[in-house]
Amino acid sequence: MTKAKPFIKWVGGKSQLIGQLEALLPPDFDKKENVTYIEPFVGGGAMLFHMLKTHKNIRRAVINDINPDLTACYTVVRDYPERLVRSLASIQDDYDKIKGEEAKKEYYLHIRDRFNSKAIAGAIENATLFIFLNRTCFNGLYRVNKAGKFNVPYGRYERPLICDADTIYADSDILQNITILTGDFEQTFDYAEGDTFFYFDPPYRPLNSTSNFNNYAKEAFNDVAQIRLKSFCDRLQHEKIPFMLSNSDCLGKDGTDRFFDDLYRNYDIQRVWAARSINADGSKRGKLTEILVRNYVDKQYRNSTFRQVEKQLSITI
To answer: Distance between alpha carbon 227 and the CA centroid of its chain, in Å?
Structure first.
């Protein structure tokens, strides 16, 4: 039986870090009943699907993103899986019949233009084109220009899986009764209720000019936005609501950029290993550290992963 997992590819997705994130959850997380789980930047949803599958004490979940095409796609997967699968199967069949890379690229650009024009029949078609572009564009990026137009180039995959019916049905099942919001992350505060836990996976602060792939909305998530997010975390701390936040490790880049270490100096900061495959400069791809910020601290690590990270890091915090 197929288990729920992200139905799209997402740059910076947390699938590879799930074990490390799980190990750094509040130690009493599973002892609580009727937990409300909130993700203000849902993205591809790797952490969301993991939490819903693994922690049965989550009775209520709220997800949000500023990208309306992304949240609309989640809604279609949740509410209309059969219709979406039929539509994806049709576009998969059309694409597979096209011979030659140039012809496939031309088809891709046609779909991209249609998606950007928004001259679309409805939510099912919009979700279909969204998933098609995600599966056939370069590295599964979602990037827009200042006009809000999707502008990622063709990906040149020989046989991309566009219609993953089993995953869509599994995801639809687990997304039932999930609240889906579209807009600024701060609106999610109003949905905190009882034992609530927030996980933040915002657009990452770029480590350099060639790694800035975070413009998946017209509104840039710059340092001002990062500081506003920290203020939101302070608000949660004041209300005694636990949170975990992921971001790039600016200090780990060269040992001089203390933006996050200074910004979150009053919170617990852990560093975890992640593989970074998206960079215009191939020499800058590979394994590097990311930060995890928490407003709660374990008396000891829940496994040895983080001791290993500390030993291997060559920087001094």
So the answer is: 20
